[in-house]
Write a structure and sequence with these properties.
MetI-like fold; MetI-like_sf
Length: about 300
């Protein structure tokens, strides 16, 4: 059939296929589920019954009025704070490992290696690290003479549990961010640095006036990943603490899953998912506005 078609018609068919197939997949696996999620958020569906009674905005009122639901967002703040620090450290290592450092390929591999490990395996690994009685962290602190810190319950203290969990994400994802920054740094022409050196610029001046402007879009991308990751974190607290102690490490995604599968309230869980989606969009829009305004 294609042999009987003109070259121009074949090109049109090919372009039409390349556009139509991705759009169909996008509608099937993204847009339609999103629309169905929004529809279910206005019902009291229990996930089993065929009855999906319309209850209006009741689920959304419950989300915003119940502190046990919306207040869980405060537990995600630690992941955002640690994520910002993670990006700063990643930029530092990217700059260092982009220089003429001996053995830099080995150090790049060493820092990137945690990213390729399975998330659940990493969680179990740090379960032994943070163990209060026989954990390697407290043992190391004790050997260094920090006896009080060596008695700390890193996953049992409500004030530090989220930062302890976020530090695992720091260890795992810092190398990934470093590689992204490293790729951006390697795309900057060396002529710019050489010209700056001739003009008498020091290392800090080169960094702030050459490096930072050229990786600004990559910083924006990594901050996007950091914000979405901080708001949607699930695996680490689920595996290590189950949201404890006393719900201090429960994240919003954990609350959604608990509402849906433990309490069989899929309507409320759907509303919570929509609120999370809107919250992510709002936060990222503010971030993009501030970064673009600063970049201009």
């Amino acid at each position: 059939m294609l042999g009987k078609m003109s070259l121009r018609s074949q090109k049109r068919l090919l372009l039409f296929s390349f556009v139509t197939v991705p759009l169909l997949l996008l509608v099937t696996f993204a847009y339609y589920p999103a629309m169905e999620l929004i529809r279910l958020s206005f019902t009291n569906w229990n996930g089993i019954s065929a009855d999906k009674a319309f209850i209006g905005w009741a689920n959304y009122k419950e989300v915003f009025s119940n502190p046990d639901i919306f207040g869980v967002f405060r537990n995600n703040v630690a992941y955002f704070v640690v994520g910002i620090v993670q990006n700063i450290v990643a930029i530092y290592f990217a700059v260092v490992l982009n220089s003429k450092l001996k053995g830099k390929k080995f150090f790049r591999l060493l820092l990137f290696l945690p990213y390729i490990l399975n998330g659940v395996a990493v969680a179990y690994l740090f379960g032994y690290v943070f163990d209060t009685t026989s954990g390697s962290l407290n043992y190391l602190l004790g050997q260094l003479g920090f006896d009080k810190l060596a008695e700390t319950s890193w996953l049992g203290n409500t004030s530090i549990v989220n930062y302890s969990l976020a530090s695992i994400g720091f260890w795992r994802f810092m190398g990934f961010n470093m590689v992204i920054y490293l790729a951006a740094l390697q795309s900057i022409p060396n002529d710019l640095y050489e010209a700056a050196s001739i003009d008498g610029a020091n290392g800090w001046q080169k960094f702030f006036y050459i490096t930072m402007p050229n990786i600004y879009k990559i910083i924006e991308l990594n901050l996007f990943l950091t914000v979405t990751g901080a708001l949607e974190v699930f695996d680490l607290p689920f595996v290590l603490t189950k949201g404890g102690p006393g719900g201090a490490s429960e994240t919003f995604v954990m609350k959604i899953i608990e509402t849906a599968f433990q309490f069989n309230n899929y309507g409320l869980a759907s509303a919570m998912s929509v609120v999370l989606l809107l919250f992510v969009i709002i936060v990222l829009s503010i971030q993009r506005y501030l970064l673009n305004r600063k970049g201009d």
